[in-house]
Design goal:
There is one protein chain. The protein has two domains: 288 residues, Sandwich (Immunoglobulin-like); 68 residues, Methane Monooxygenase Hydroxylase, Chain G, domain 1 (Up-down Bundle). Helix content is 12%, strand content 39%. Strands 2, 3, 5, 6, 11, 12, 13, 14, 15, 16 and 17 form an eleven-stranded mixed beta sheet that branches. Strands 1-4-10-7 form a four-stranded antiparallel beta sheet, with no helix packed on it. A two-stranded antiparallel sheet has the order 8-9. It is globular, with a radius of gyration of 23 Å. The two termini are 32 Å apart.
Amino acid sequence: MNMRKLYLSLIALLVALTAAANDSEYFTCGNQLVPIQNTNIAVAKEVLTVNLTNNGFTNVEVYYEFRNDGPATDILMGFEAKPPYFDGNSELTVGPHPSIHNFVVEMNGKNLPYTNYLSEKGLTNGISPVDKSKWEYTDGDFDAFVSKADKETPLEYAYVYSFKAHFKPGINIVRHSYTYDESYGVGHSFWIDYKLTPATRWANHQIDDFTLRITAKGTAKHFIVETKPFAGTDVDMKIVSGKGRTRMMPWGFDESNGKVYELSVRNAVVEWHVKNFSPKHELWISSADVLLMSGNVSDEKVYYDCGVHYAPSYIVPDKSTSLNRRIYRNLPFAIRGYKFNDPKLKNFFNSQWWYLPDPKYNPSKDRSLSKRERKIVHGLFNNLFQ
């Protein structure tokens, strides 16, 4: 099959499937806890855990060890999150972020109460509350609010959580957790942003001991991680538990755009650990179907995931054949590791890099298939998003 025709077919299929799932939605990104005032407190350790799920949410758990080499002190700390796009909210409402849930900060065993703000330019210059009288709504464009004065200047703001933290001398342990809505859209069925660079605002301008942990507990995930944050460290991502594989892939139509980690995991934990980490780039995780948009396509290539927004994308020559329909109907079982006895199905799925066979998997006992996956199994391909 001509590669250009194949690529265009893949894009058309992906656009059609994802468009059926309400086009694009950006909700927010994860972020570091930062000082809002000058401080001598250093980040001795951080373990950032990103838990991938199938319910359209990302759960974040962060373990910090902050080091205070001086006397006990009180510091004003904060967390900022970008507003969602296209949420239809025509009011600047002060309060928790509409796409962040179960926000908790615990310090040395005690929960910290917080105050919410809408702050211009986030926490770049401390807390600068938005003056609502100066801005007006523009009917849901990317720049949802503009200056009343010139009808053009966009409002740059963030939802801010602010809290006072008492740092005793020595090590202080902070546990931070929250859940936020996964973004998704044409080209990728989920993506997760997380800001790493704000960690350099602490006194040591780095994280002395940093671990990134990505989990897929009780599910299978096929995704990529951009490598820019890890550049120059000579440390690779490793699967430390569960089943999976990882490889480096070109990012874009030529290698000048760098590479990404491609990972296929099931009930697994992936880690990246480094010392003296001073991040220069942000973390970006996406469903693997975005590789279709970057030119990494080949005949008989499948991208599949169990997630709620995932557009199951596959193409093989002559899609009308009964074999290809059987391939599509068996995707939900293949991602869970079913070992196929049928020679043709076995040959096809063994050719897929992401396929991780599991002799113990029994589909007759599996109750985890989503409503959409049950439609796929029964061959109802035309109304998957209804």
